């Protein structure tokens, strides 16, 4: 009876371990607007960023990737009033950040900005160009950021942001990329389900092998005893 109780306890422990690892995954990258990029309704009438954000689980340490051009900006704020007015001219530096590469310009030159999520609660995003006109034409959204796994070490004490180095061939087809220097390449949001599923399968396979080996050993012990 004692041997049977130990066997049951071991099997339960293996099951709990499998369930624990099943949901584990890394930080995520979310490409804002997916293939539509980050633009206002006048440039792309199909964009709906609040709809894009719906159903997604944003957590500390995740990144939002904005694919846009130099004629559109990325403003992140924790201030609802700033967000509602689409105007950050009088915003405090501790609650609003302009992630744009430089001064706005009438240019279709592509640019990519990577924005880390470093504060729990509501995060608001909009384009601040043309006195908020782009924001008022659909270029805005809000998300709720949960704790998740917490901030990675690289974001707990961030260093000043720096633009990514230019490519060696200086090709005009390669967009400028503004990525924080502490960017640690989390997995893409679209790959999370597959990645976590693969990890879960690997854990289950390992546990099956372990249980089989353990059972064989126990059976051998029972036989010789």
Automatic annotation (TrEMBL):
Recorded GO CC terms: plasma membrane
Which of UniProt's keywords are assigned here?
A: Signal
Any GO MF annotation of the entry: electron transfer activity
So which residues are the signal peptide here? 1-26
Where is the sequence biased in composition, kind Polar residues? 164-177
Asked if the Swiss-Prot or TrEMBL record annotates the protein with the keyword Signal, the reply is yes
User: Per the database record, which ranges form the Phytocyanin domain?
Assistant: 28-147
The record's region (Disordered) falls at 151-177
Question: Which Gene3D superfamilies does this one have?
Answer: Cupredoxins - blue copper proteins
This chain's protein is named: Blue copper protein-like
Which gene codes for it?
LOC120273018
